Amino acid sequence: MTSLLTWTPGQSTTTFTHSSEPLVLPQKSGPKRAFPELCRDVTPSCHLNPLLFNGHLQTMWTAVNKAAPAVHYKRRVFASEEYNFKGHFTVDFAVAPPPRSGTAEDEGPEDQGLREDPMGVGHTRLPPRTTYFTSKEFEHLSSEDTKPLLITLHGLSGGSYEVYLRHVIEPLIRASTGERSEQGLSGGEWEALVVNSRGCAGSKITSSILYNARATWDVRQVVKWARQTWPTRPLYGVGYSLGANILTNYLGEEGEECLLDAAVIVSNPWKLEVSNLALKRTWLGSEVYSKTMGNNMRNLFETHKEEILKNKSLSEEKILQLKYLYEFDRAVQCATWGYPTETAYYRDASSTDSVLSIRIPTFCLHARDDPIASDEAVPYEEIQQTPWVVMCATAGGGHLAWYELSGGRWHAKPIVQFLKQMQADVDFSKIDRKVGIAAKGPQGGHQTPFAFDPMRRKAHVPGSEAQH
């Protein structure tokens, strides 16, 4: 079912796509509420900067306008528990600003705190306003408090410092009364952390493995760890761009057993092969976006090539000559994960089918003029087949942009309001996660019934029963 908000001059029209038999959310008090109704209510009118009148201008402005609220972090290096994907990755936890006379600039390091990794792995650089937990601090994180925790996945080659995610984290962790909360790290009503992809945000890798668009093992480990560390906290997830694709796949893989209560998916490229073809179709897509992303990944390779080249199937010469993102995926991802072509990798890592296995309330944001996460790649039909997912698509906004005339970022408003509303009103303990099983499709006829499994994978570890 699709509905359209009323258009007024200067407003980017907003469309909602969802099932005709939507999920009904039990409330902590009062009558039950339809999930799409809640999503519409938390979504304000979308008024964007009229000078940035198309998706290209909106997207390119992200390279110019870096204004964002300051978020301070403390980092911990985690050792992977996944047998087949050994190595290390970092998690940055939002913390209250330290007391000091000056302010931290985006280009400057934090001026107080531990700058050496107590785990001994270290870093290539520390992002702004980021230090390490001491071993003692980290050991004492566990608590029985009930503060909601937001777990964030960033976009391709990004990290916890990214502007678009700080616009969401800062208003959640800000102390609403001006007084710091005694519980948790942030001092505010919410807690937040960012799972950095391997090698990103100045982290070091300790194996030949980077990450890919279906690299769900690290977020799975962090969610399990968070549940063990804070057994009474509500857990929420948000993913952006490639991180949105990873998070969607994680939600689908976990299904009814997902430890998160609700999630937000932002600017997901969904069908990766389709989004790649859309990029190659135009000069801007190929020579600006794909080339920029390819350059970013090549730089990531150069930073970590000593470890990555332990994979003898990789060619340093070929990697250093590549220009476009799909060339990087062909040279590195295929050789790492066993895919014959980058298009085979794209098809297997895409998150479109994962939508049908999601069993927690999931709110998606997308700009229809997004030049990177193409509108033709959005699984509108699949979303209409499941009660668990609602898609909000704006006519404008570009890729992770949504710049308003004031300089603010519109996407932060519905995300923050959605999370706060779900936390304040919804009784998650009464949600029946078996609703929507039929989203896998009707069983076929003939003498042997057929059934569609949305989480089937073509790539797997030989001899392993697990598909994730």
From TrEMBL:
The molecular function terms of the Gene Ontology recorded here are: acetylesterase activity; alcohol O-acetyltransferase activity; monoacylglycerol lipase activity
> Could you mention a single GO BP entry for this protein?
medium-chain fatty acid biosynthetic process
The signal peptide stretch is none
Q: Does the keyword Hydrolase apply?
A: yes
The answer to whether keyword S-adenosyl-L-methionine applies is no
Where is region (Disordered) located?
Answer: 1-29, 96-126
UniProt-listed InterPro entries: AB_hydrolase_1, AB_hydrolase_4_sf, AB_hydrolase_fold, ABHD4
EC number(s) from the headed UniProt entry: 2.3.1.84
Q: Where is the composition biased (Polar residues)?
A: 1-20
Recorded catalytic reaction(s): these are: an aliphatic alcohol + acetyl-CoA = an acetyl ester + CoA
Please indicate which superkingdom the organism of origin belongs to.
Eukaryota
AB hydrolase-1 domain location: 148-401
Please provide the record's keywords in A-Z order.
Answer: Hydrolase, Transferase
Q: Where is the active site?
A: 241 (charge relay system), 370 (charge relay system), 399 (charge relay system)
Q: Which family does it belong to?
A: Belongs to the AB hydrolase superfamily. AB hydrolase 4 family.
What biological function has been recorded for the protein in this entry? Displays enzymatic activity both for medium-chain fatty acid (MCFA) ethyl ester synthesis and hydrolysis (esterase activity). MCFA are toxic for yeast and this enzyme could thus be involved in their detoxification by esterification.
* Name of the protein this chain belongs to: alcohol O-acetyltransferase
Q: Which organism is it from?
A: Hortaea werneckii
